[in-house]
Structure formats: C-alpha cells, structure tokens
Design goal:
The protein contains twelve helices and 17 strands. The chain is of the alpha+beta class. The chain folds into four domains: about 5-45 and about 305-375, no CATH class; about 75-195, Beta-Lactamase (2-Layer Sandwich), CATH 3.30.450; about 380-470, Helix Hairpins, CATH 1.10.287.130; about 475-630, Heat Shock Protein 90, CATH 3.30.565.10. A hairpin with a 4-residue loop joins strand 1 (about 105-110) and strand 2 (about 115-120). Helix 7 crosses helix 8. The radius of gyration is 37 Å and the shape is flat. Residues about 160-165, about 350-365, about 365-375 and about 585-590 have low confidence and may be disordered.
Length: about 625
C-alpha cells in the first residue's frame, strides 16, 4: 500500500476543501449582486416613467391652453367683421403657421347654413357643433370658457379612411370659438383641428415611454398602435390590471404598474400614470388617464453592461483568490506539518519514550478556521471596494471632462480681452501712436477689454455665490418701463451698429414689478445682449403683458424677447440653463461667453419669484426668451 507524507495529505485535503467553498462563495456573490443591480435599475425605471407621465400630462394641459389662447386671439380679429373672404382666407392660412406641428386645419363655418366659408384643408368638413353653445349677441367680454372642444375620435373611426394606420398623429380635437359681425350678431364659427401628440420612435434604453391616454370610460384615445385607438380596455387580455390603473389614475394617484399585453406581443411593460381633467366640453367632471409606457427590456438595458463588468471583476477576483489560496495552503501545510515532522524525528532519535522531552506541538486548527473566515470576508470587502472604485472613477471622469471644458472655454475668454489690454497698452508704451487721439483710441479699446474681462470674472463669482447660497436680494417695487428704457439706452448703440430693427412700444404706464433692481437689470441686460449678439440680420422685438394666476392672488408681468438670429437646435435647448454648458463649447466658436449668463439669470429669476424659459424652432429660425416677474401689490 502506498504511503504519503502528512504534508501532501494535508495539502490535498485543504485544496479539495478550499476550491468548492471559493466557487460557491463567488457564485453567491454574483447572484446577490446581480439581483441588487436589477432591483435598483427597475426602481429607477419605475420612478422615471412615473415622472415622464406627469410631464406628459403637464405638457398636454399647457398645449391645450396655448391653443385655446391662440383661438381666442384669432376669433377676436377684426378681419372677421369684414365681408372679404380673401382676407379671411389669408388670415386663417397665417394661423396655420403659428403652430404648424399641432394645427391640422383651420376652418370658418356659417352657423346658420352649416357651410364652409373658408378652410385650409380643401373641402373637409368638421363634425357639427352645437349652435346654442354661444350667445347670439356678442357679450361684453369674450372669456376663455367660450371655447368649445370636442373629440374628433368618433369622426375618424366612422370615416373609413386609413388615417389611424398611416398617420403618426393622434389625439385630434376640434376647438371652436364664435365669430360676431359688426352688429354683434353670431354669424360663424372659427374651428381649429389639432393633433396634440405625434408618435415617435424612441431610442433604445429611453425611459420616457410611449404616451397612452385612456378616458374615464376606458377608451384608448392615444396608443402606440394607432389601430387600437377607439377600442375599450375591456377587449384587452390584461384588462383587469388596466382597470386598476385607470381607477387609481382617476382617483388622483401618480404611480406605476406592470402590464403584460398593452401591445401586440407579451413582453412585460412598465407604465407610469397620472391624470388630467378632460378638456372636452361637457366632460368637466371627467378625467383622462395619461400613461408613459416602456418595456422591461428598456428598463434593464444597462443590466447587460453591469453583468459583463461583474463577470470580469469576479473572474479576476477568483484567479487572484485561487492563487492566494494555493500559496496559503502550501504554506500552512508546511507550518502545520513541521511540528509533526519534528516530533517524528525526535521519536526516531529518542526511542525511549520515558527519556523523551515533552514538547507541545500544535496543529493550529483554530487559525485555519479563522483563515477561511478572513478569506470569505476578503471576498465581501473586495467586492464592495471594487464597486466604490468603479463609482468613484465614473464620477471623476465626468467631473474631469466638465472641468477641462470649462477651463478651456474660460481660459480662451480670459485671454481674448487680456491680449487686447496688453496689446493696446504696449502700442502706447512703445510709441507707435502718432498723436493723443490715437492714444485715446487704444486706451478706450483697453478699457472695453478690461470691462469685458471684469464681466467674465463677475459671472464666475456670481455663479459661485449662487451655488454657495451667499447672494442676497433687495426686493422692492420698481418701475418696469423706466428700467427697460435704461437698458435699451445702454444697448441702442450696438443695435444701430448692426443695423437691427428694435420693435418696442414704449408705454408710459406705471407698471410696478416686485424685484431686486440690480439683479433684475442684470438679467434683462444679459437676455437683450444675447439677442443682439446672436442676431446679424432682421429685428429684435420686445413684448410685455400682464397675466394672473389661477388663485387670483398674484399678478405677473410677462416679458418676451424675440429675435431673428441664429436660433438653437431643438435637441440642444435643454442644456442652455446649466452652468458652464454651451451649444458650441469649443474655444473657436464664432461667439464668445463662458456659458454662465443664462444659468445666472435662471437662478436670479427664481430667487425673485419669477421664471425664465427659452424656445426656438431650430437653427437659423430665431429665438424667443420669456421672463415672468411678479407685479408689486
């Protein structure tokens, strides 16, 4: 029978014991980490689709209000009091250009004969409207409640046309307002046919979700598959979960729910939902459920990358641990077998046991158990450390990129005026000026560059104070038109230099706003300065009007600065109010700036109880900046 040394037996036994435990531990670590990552991504997706549903509902309500306002303004036009159908046709065609992405058709209908007077959509006739909805005599004040809205869904479904299959437009509504003649008699109806939503192909991984709208009766008003528009949720295989969702939404809850058969396939879906009041006339007490729906695959698309990283990390960890275990096993085998080997040698040398010296040999079983515990703890620690390192690396990478972009932009912006100052002063000091007049011109250029340099430094200091919460305001009533005239006087020279037209009705009315004089002036100078800087041809228009909140407690002054300049791509507009971010961030761009002006203006307006927003139809299509500031009580 073959004999083996104790050291070899101990090494083999430890090896057979260690490897299975290590593999099981790593496998359990992988499973637990994978499940936690999946749960975190799923929870994030649920929150995102719920927030997306809320945003879609808010945008839908705002769009309806904009369309109602546009319709009221159009119906009050004096062109409808004239018997000139050509002018009326030109007018309604102009209306189509105001909101071309939403307006499908504008039509004027004779209310008595129910015939089309003017239309932008050939001979298409809108569904009949109730003739007794409006007073036959023109009231003193045409309020917004005089807008009649009806759903065009029934007309689409009964028209036997391929609209629902071929068109990506959904949620068609008919908005109607009365038209009165010179004698104040109701003669016609002005109607807008609008499509509020357009189905788009979302990028892979997007969590904004496809819009789905269900009315209180359970009918689909908007659906990713247009052929399902008009159907009831009772025909869906997952109707019970849809009924639960609809009840919760109507009750005012903003939450999410998993669905399984809203679309044709059986993929699991995540639906965030909320509700809005029905805009349809006659349905004032009913609501629409607004959903944002995305697939579970979209929600977990990042899980594949996490899984790949996790496998690589654990593979490296396993290789390292196996190597460490082998070294530890052979070392421990030697240390544990050394006392036995020494005892064997002593026994051979001292065959008389009575004369043998009593020595205490220990096999260190406790230490071996502690080693296993340490290894297991090491796996947990290495895993946690790797995750922290990965997160820190990602954050450091993003921070470093923003830092480099800001430093490159700011250094360029600082060097430009600084070079102008140095160059102008150097020409004077070197005696290249012919007379005092030329010296004065160079000094004036140096002064302009110095003031530009000071403005850049002030922007950086302002954004730092705002982020640190160290900026203070002195809010008090201000004469808005007096302040605006001061700012126009400051900018009029540059406007004339660029041959731009400034359209502004200089009212002498004493409109008082509640704001900080210097901070509000800073915002207005920045916005008007941007309009001038980015406009080479055309005009700059200033519009102001007063609006009121729903609770009638606070009045606001709305200021719009409209230019015909270079415009902004739609997919870049959400970046403009972030610090250090510009649509073109390179140092060789045509226009200067540190990217702080709009970010500072946004923070200052919000601190004063107002707001600022920006809209552009796209590049080379001009820009509209809207400011809202409270009026002094």
């Amino acid at each position: 029978m073959s004999q083996y040394s104790f050291r070899n037996i101990l090494s083999s036994r430890l090896l057979l014991l260690t490897l299975p435990v290590l593999i099981i531990g790593v496998s359990l670590t992988y499973v637990v980490t994978y499940r936690k990552a999946r749960s975190a991504l799923l929870e994030t997706a649920r929150q995102n689709v719920t927030e997306s549903a809320v945003r879609k509902a808010e945008n839908l309500q705002q769009l309806i209000k904009v369309l109602e306002t546009t319709l009221i303004n159009a119906s009050n036009s004096s062109v409808f009091t004239l018997n000139n159908t050509r002018q009326q046709q030109n007018f309604i065609e102009q209306q189509m250009q105001l909101l071309p992405q939403y307006l499908d058709c504008v039509q004027v209908t004779d209310i008595k004969k129910n015939t089309i007077i003017n239309s932008t959509c050939s001979s298409e006739k809108f569904p009949p409207l109730p003739t007794n909805f409006w007073p036959t005599k023109e009231p003193a004040n045409l309020a917004q409640s005089q807008i009649y809205i009806q759903n065009n869904l029934d007309n689409q479904l009964s028209s036997n046309n391929p609209y629902l299959i071929q068109s990506s437009k959904q949620l068609q509504l008919i908005l109607a307002a009365p038209l009165y003649n010179n004698q104040g008699n109701l003669t016609a109806i002005l109607s807008f046919k609008v499509s509020l939503l357009k189905l788009e192909i979302l990028p892979t991984g997007s969590l904004t979700g496809y819009p789905v709208i269900i009315n209180e009766q359970g009918t689909f008003l908007v659906h990713p598959f247009p052929e399902k528009v008009g159907q009831n949720i009772n025909k869906e295989p997952d109707k019970y979960r849809l009924e639960i969702l609809l009840r919760n939404a109507i009750a005012g809850r903003q939450d999410f729910l998993h669905l399984f058969s809203l679309q044709e396939n059986t993929r699991e879906l995540i639906a965030g939902y909320t509700s809005i009041p029905s805009p349809i006339s006659g349905e004032e007490n009913q609501k629409w459920a607004v959903l944002a729906v995305t697939s579970l695959d979209n929600a977990l698309i990042q899980l594949q990358d996490i899984q790949t990283i996790l496998i690589r990390l654990l593979l490296i960890l396993v290789i390292g641990l196996v190597m460490a275990s082998l070294i530890a096993i052979f070392y421990l085998s030697r240390e544990l077998s050394a006392p036995l080997e020494k005892l064997t040698e002593f026994t051979i040398e001292n065959k008389n046991i009575q004369q043998a010296k009593n020595k205490n040999y220990s096999f260190k079983i406790k230490e071996i158990n502690e080693l296993y515990q340490s290894l297991n703890q090491m796996i947990i620690s290495l895993k946690a450390g790797a995750k922290e390192i990965e997160t820190a690396w990602q954050e450091a990478k993003v921070a470093n990129q923003l830092k480099n972009e800001f430093l490159a932009t700011t250094s360029h912006e600082l060097r430009t005026p600084l070079n102008g100052i140095i160059g102008s002063i150097r020409l004077i000091l070197d005696g290249y000026c012919d007379d005092k007049k030329e010296e004065f011109e160079f000094l004036e250029k140096a002064d302009q560059s110095a003031r530009h340099l000071l403005a850049i430094i002030n922007d950086v200091l302002d954004i730092s104070k705002i982020e640190a919460g160290h900026i203070s305001l002195d809010l008090k009533p201000l004469n808005f038109y007096q302040l605006l005239n001061e700012i126009i006087n400051l900018q009029i020279g540059l406007i004339k230099t660029k041959n731009l037209n400034l359209n502004f009705e200089n009212n002498d009315s004493n409109i008082q706003v509640y704001a900080d004089y210097y901070k509000f002036k800073q915002v207005l100078i920045n916005i008007l300065g941007n309009a001038i800087k980015f406009t080479d041809l055309g005009s700059i228009t200033l519009e102001t009007y007063v609006t009121q909140t729903k609770d009638n407690l606070t009045n606001f002054l709305i200021i719009k600065v409209i230019d015909t300049g270079i415009g902004i791509p739609i997919n870049q507009q959400d970046k403009l109010f972030k610090p250090f971010v510009m649509v073109d961030g390179s140092t060789t761009r045509q226009f200067g700036g540190t990217g702080l002006g709009l970010a500072i203006s946004k923070n200052l307006m919000e601190m004063m109880g107002g707001s600022i927003s920006l809209f552009s139809l796209g590049q080379n299509k001009g820009t509209t900046v809207t400011l809202t500031i409270p009026l002094a009580k």
